[in-house]
Write a structure and sequence with these properties.
mainly alpha; 72% helix; 351 residues; 0% strand
Length: 351
């Protein structure tokens, strides 16, 4: 017999939803912000936590995640992160700039190049770590240390450099990854610090997810935002496809055995980050020629955020099971790295 309350049993059932730790609070945030947005604006600690606290929560989240990455997992994580980052950015730039230069009026199915590049190049780090925590391994989670580079407008500004945006915010890039670096240092110089920060990986996710949802209104799916539904699906299919193909090639080039060619991290990267919603405003501030499409691009990106947040967990759950049926698991991959490390230490001692 257990002492679960009815609400406990409800939570256990909800927890079976793929990516529940992220998706359920996000959905609640969207509903509250749509139906009773004033409830999140009463001020003080309530507004600070549930409405305006995303930046702090994500910073703490990255600090906690970084603390769990050990030196032995760093190299595979960095390599994975670089492969996924380049694949996601590459397909975003190729798709977006192709629409801008080769399609009539620079629009494809209503999707704007600014929205395409901003959405497809900017992934939801919290959703990524939530999914890789459930379906992946430590090297999958650790790749976020590199993938966090695509947070914010930096890569969009790089891709739109051909349009005259040549000021690259390097300090903003460093500030985005510093919490992860700081956590990595703390976790590797102190086992006590690593253990203390371990709880932050899961504890912070639902609060950050709610804050993301609290910036989204379901009405964005109407009008211009409805085009964002297409953008969200395009992101999952093309961004995810490019990431999966690229990571598979990496495994082949690195001569990893078949059962260790885990691709969960690639599937988990096919999302649109909530902070991408602010990218059109940043771009328009730097180049006034984008002011005319700022609102439409923002609506499209916001809808894509909602679509990928709901679709991706189910896709990753299906993909992880599909991969497992073929004998490929994250556990096999992690065991392979551990055995190689043990062999390297043994060889060093012998010599």
């Amino acid at each position: 017999m257990n002492n679960y309350t009815p609400f406990d049993r409800f939570l256990l059932k909800v927890g079976k939803i793929p990516g529940a730790l992220m998706i359920v609070p996000l959905f609640l945030g969207v509903v509250v912000n749509t139906v009773i947005p004033e409830a999140l604006l009463i001020g003080s600690f309530t507004t600070a936590l549930f409405k305006n606290g995303l930046a702090v929560l994500i910073g703490l989240f990255f600090l906690s995640v970084g603390s769990q990455i050990t030196f032995k997992a760093a190299l595979p994580s960095v390599e994975k992160g670089l492969v996924l980052l380049l694949a996601k950015f590459g397909i975003a730039a190729l798709f977006g700039l192709s629409v801008a230069f080769f399609f009539e009026e620079g629009v494809f199915l209503g999707m704007l190049p600014l929205a395409i590049i901003a959405a497809m190049s900017n992934s939801n780090g919290s959703l990524y770590v939530a999914l890789t925590s459930q379906f992946g391994n430590r090297t999958d989670k650790g790749a976020i240390s590199i993938l966090s580079i695509n947070d914010g407008p930096f890569l969009t500004l790089v891709a739109l450099g051909v349009a005259g945006l040549a000021a690259f915010p390097l300090m903003a890039l460093f500030s985005a990854v510093f919490p992860m670096i700081f956590g990595f240092i703390l976790g590797n110089i102190s086992s006590l610090a690593r253990k203390f920060l371990e709880a932050g990986e899961k504890l912070i996710i639902p609060f950050a997810a709610f804050a993301i949802g609290a910036s989204i209104n379901l009405q964005v799916l109407v009008g211009e935002g409805s085009i964002g539904v297409i953008l969200g699906l395009v992101t999952v299919i093309f961004s995810g496809g490019a990431a999966i193909a690229s990571l598979y090639v990496w495994h082949v080039v690195r001569r990893h055995p078949g059962p260790t060619r885990n691709l969960v991290s690639a599937a988990s990267e096919a999302s649109v980050a909530g902070n991408a919603i602010a990218t059109p405003a940043v771009v328009a501030a730097l180049d006034p020629s984008y002011v005319a499409v700022q609102d439409a691009a923002t609506a499209q990106i916001a809808a894509a955020v909602v679509v990928t947040a709901f679709v991706l967990p189910f896709f990753v759950a299906w993909f992880a099971n599909w991969q497992k049926r073929r004998g490929v698991t994250p556990e096999n991959e992690e065991a392979f790295y551990e055995s190689n490390r043990s062999k390297a230490v043994t060889d060093k001692l012998v010599t």
